Amino acid sequence: MAHLSEKENYFRMFRGEVPEYVPWGYNFGWSVAPPFFGPRMGEDYTDLFGVKMIQESKSGPIPEPGKFILDDIRKWRDIIKRPAILDEIDWPSQAKKDLDNRDPELPRTGWVGMGNGYFMNLTYFMGFTNALIACLEEPEEVKDLMNFLLDLNLELGKNLIEHYKYDLVTLGDDIAHEHGPFVSEAVFMDLFEPMWRQNVAIFREADIYAEHHNCGKIEPFIKHIVNMGFNSWGPAQRSNDLAAIKREYDSKFIISGGFENNGFVSWPETTQEEVRAEVRHVMDELAPGGGFAFGGFIMGGPEYSDVNLRNEWIRDEYEKNKFKYYS
């Protein structure tokens, strides 16, 4: 029987140790954060930069189609402004409000950033097509905008470090789709890697662990994410060769997730045993030796009546198997 708390067991991995049992990868994400930053679920809203976000997607808000705020990257200085709220926050009072009555056994974690990352913010401002064109035609203007966002993120991060005293931060940027990154490695290294390297550095220098959130097939960039200083990566979807990544980095870089939340596991015709078998397959492949936190669920709106049931199967099968990998 386990004697380590979930918190102690989870952070064993970040110290390079083998945990007592396979941690659940989504227990500690985004549990403490000021309410002003990051995506909101379940409601339409306008983000800090003036982008209208709507709840058209079942998995979260998206910019209102066809109504982007920036059509020419060269005009970004006229459109993208410093959010006024940065100058209005009473950080000590806000942190006390957010941290009061929290369970001390749960680590302090949070999704940290102005908006939704560097590449994704660019697409929110311009749409994917114009954002990608800007990266190719006006890279210096993109760099200037990215550095503007970096300055805001560093200011935000330093306040969160001082007042929230995080154990783990999540910094995210969905720069890949199911089949590969949206940009080339050269473009990534030129325009986006320097921002993330500087962004994560302030947390690592404060002895705060950092997880990089990136959906899709981000495998070609994993070596750079590791070199930036990130300790962990999620949701680590199975479009990536997760077994090869695990062999490459062993327990030095944590794979968090590993379970595909779409595809056959969410099909109505997929049986309970097939869903449970996929949980066992993922854990058998990635759990041995440590450096893995299982995270599994499927997504869907209220019209999909079996979503909650399938998620119960996934969690139950994880619970049945989490102790069998480590002595």
Structure, described:
The protein is α/β, with parallel strands linked by helices and 327 residues long. It has a domain at 31-258: TIM Barrel, CATH 3.20.20.210. It is 41% helix and 13% strand. The chain has helices at residues 6-14, 76-79, 91-99, 118-126, 128-137, 139-164, 185-205, 222-228, 242-249, 272-286, 307-321, and strands at residues 45-46, 52-57, 60-63, 109-111, 168-172, 176-177, 180-181, 209-213, 232-234, 254-258, 292-295. It has a six-stranded parallel β-sheet with strand order 4-5-8-9-10-11. The chain has a three-stranded antiparallel β-sheet with strand order 1-2-3, with no helix packed on it. Helix 4 (118-126) packs across helix 5 (128-137) and helix 6 runs parallel beside helix 7. The longest helix has 26 residues, at 139-164. It is globular and about 60 Å long. The model has no long low-confidence stretch (mean pLDDT 91).
Helix content: 40-55%
Low-confidence spans: pLDDT under 50, at least 5 residues?
A: none
CATH topology annotation of the domain at 31-258:
TIM Barrel
Q: Look at the structure and give the mean pLDDT.
A: 91
List the helices and strands in order.
HEEEHHEHHHEEEHEHEHEHEH
Strand content: 5-15%
Strand order of the largest sheet: 4-5-8-9-10-11
Evaluate the radius of gyration.
20 Å
What is the number of helices?
Answer: 11
Major sheet summary line: 6 strands, parallel
Class by helix and strand content?
Answer: alpha/beta
CATH class designation of the domain at 31-258:
Alpha Beta
- Total number of β-strand segments? 11
Task: Name the CATH architecture of the domain at 31-258.
Answer: Alpha-Beta Barrel
Q: What overall form do the CA principal axes indicate?
A: globular
Span between N and C termini? 11 Å
